[in-house]
Design brief:
- The two termini are about 25 Å apart.
- The strands form two sheets. Strands 5, 6, 7, 8, 9, 10, 11, 12 and 13 form a nine-stranded parallel beta sheet that branches. The chain has a seven-stranded mixed beta sheet with strand order 3-2-1-4-14-15-16.
- α3 crosses α4, α4 packs parallel to α5 and α13 crosses α16.
- The longest helix is centred in the N-terminal third of the chain and has 17 residues.
- It is about 35% helix and about 25% strand.
- The chain is globular.
- It folds into two domains: about 120 residues, Urease, subunit C, domain 1 (Roll), CATH 2.30.40.10; about 280 residues, Metal-dependent hydrolases (TIM Barrel).
- The chain is an alpha/beta fold.
- The protein contains 16 helices and 16 strands.
- The chain binds guanine and zinc ion.
- The site of guanine has 11 residues, from α2.
Length: about 425
């Protein structure tokens, strides 16, 4: 057994729908881990009896939280993060597609995959839902890198059979075969999962979307991820390409792509009725604040989505997103809320990054909190990692104040250690 003594904070419920406290905080806490799972988590004074002769690692002064869940990120975009100019559609053509074309080269994909998963771990992200490039081999490189580290990673090859440069498009039957083979080889291997990944409606023909729906129906434990209602020009073009669809979401609905295991990135311009339909289907939304600000896409209506009961997670959306850090992303989520007159609650923010993200992926029995029997994916945070934090934190008046300052001022520098299934995978 492993034992860690530190302050511990995690969410056990959704603070937006819970009367009273949704979080558990142990100022002097103890986390017990065995065989990759949490054995117990609570006050040191109450759990010390269960230690037996297990040595305790004293991390007093540090904060243990669950590993972060990134519900939307693009693996082949690491090299064009922070590319200047353009909104979504021009950004895709000018920066993104050329960068993704490079992933046809297996060596390039393998090197990038190593960098990508290490960068996730450095930032405290232990689980992620990831877009690959259109190339099957690039997704295999990513799965192999995550498998080596036992990460809870779900990914898929982007489906795109139109409106992309030659060399970056696939075909209906070619992409069906690629997906069948990726699912057979990787879905359920270790902690990996496959997600059917139509890039967005603009890049997929009716036939390809129908095929994606068929593959999903054949594999009920596979996920689905795509983009929805991110940018005004994208929405106008989608309506032209799908004149029979009642709205953008309906494009995905009519092909059987909206269900309990579906995650829709952005949804910035979605109307109330569509949030209602997502909630009824049990589908989830990934809020990507740094991306929505960077591309000038708009301000996500988080309170409206919550009011309709949609499952919510947070996404970095690298490379339109500008950071791998979920902490920094939460700080930017707060600023998006400020521009809408909605102040994001710090506990709800941490919920989005942990248990909320886990629920968005249907993984709440496995990850998202530090309750007994869950997989021991957790972080040791150093709240004095920078001179500014070291000065600001002791001045905090409450746990809420500390947590809020952590999301506004914190980033990868705060993540001292990252544990995946009880094994240390990163140390600063
Ligand atoms: N919509 C379609 N593809 C993309 C992408 O790569 N990034 C973002 N942010 N939106 C998209
Ligand atoms: Zn995206």
């Amino acid at each position: 057994m492993q034992a860690y003594r530190a302050s511990i904070l995690h969410l056990e419920a959704d603070p937006s729908t819970t009367d009273g406290e949704a979080h558990a905080f142990h100022e002097d806490g103890l986390l017990l881990v065995a065989e990759g799972r949490v054995v117990a988590c609570g006050d040191y004074a109450k759990l010390a009896d269960e230690l037996g002769d297990t040595p305790v690692e004293d991390l007093t002064g540090k904060l243990i939280v669950p590993g972060f869940v990134d519900t939307h990120i693009h693996f082949p975009q690491v090299d064009i993060i922070a590319a200047h100019g353009e909104q979504l559609l021009d950004w895709l053509e000018r920066h993104t597609f050329p960068a993704e074309a490079a992933f046809a080269d297996q060596g390039h994909a393998e090197a990038a995959a190593e960098f990508f998963v290490e960068e996730l771990l450095r930032n405290g992200t232990t689980s992620a839902l990831v877009f690959g490039s259109v190339h099957k081999a690039s997704v295999e490189a990513l799965f192999a890198a995550a498998l080596k580290r036992d990460m809870r990673l779900i990914a898929g090859k982007s489906l795109m059979d139109r409106n992309a440069p030659p060399g970056l498009t696939d075909t209906v039957e070619g992409s069906r075969a690629d997906m069948q083979s990726l699912i057979a080889d990787w879905h359920g291997k270790g902690r990996l999962g496959y997600a059917v990944t139509p890039r967005f409606a603009i890049s997929c023909s009716d036939e390809q979307l129908a095929m994606a729906g068929e593959v999903l129906a054949e594999h009920p434990t596979v996920w689905m991820q795509t983009h929805l209602s991110e940018n005004i020009r994208e929405i106008v073009d989608t309506a032209k390409l799908f004149p029979d669809a009642k709205d953008y979401l309906d494009v995905y609905e009519r092909f059987g792509l909206v269900g309990k295991r579906s995650v829709f990135a952005h949804c910035v311009h979605l109307q109330g009725d569509a949030f209602q339909r997502l909630a009824q289907a049990g589908a989830s939304v990934a809020f990507c604040p740094t991306s929505n600000l960077f591309l000038g896409s708009g301000l996500f209506p988080l309170e409206t989505a919550c009011a309709h009961g949609v499952k919510m997670g947070i996404g970095t959306d690298v490379g339109a997103g500008t950071t791998f850090s979920i902490l920094h992303t939460l700080g930017e989520a707060y600023k998006v809320g400020q521009l809408r007159g909605e102040a994001l609650d710090p506990f709800y923010a941490l919920y989005l990054a942990t248990l909320g993200g886990a629920r968005a992926l249907g993984l709440e029995d496995e990850i998202g909190s530090l309750e007994a029997d869950k997989i021991a994916d957790f972080l040791v945070l150093d709240l004095a990692a920078t001179p500014l934090l070291a000065r600001r934190m002791p001045a905090a008046r409450s746990l809420e104040d500390r947590l809020f300052a952590l999301t506004v001022l914190g980033d990868d520098r705060v993540v001292e250690r990252t544990y995946v299934a009880g094994v240390e995978r990163h140390r600063r």
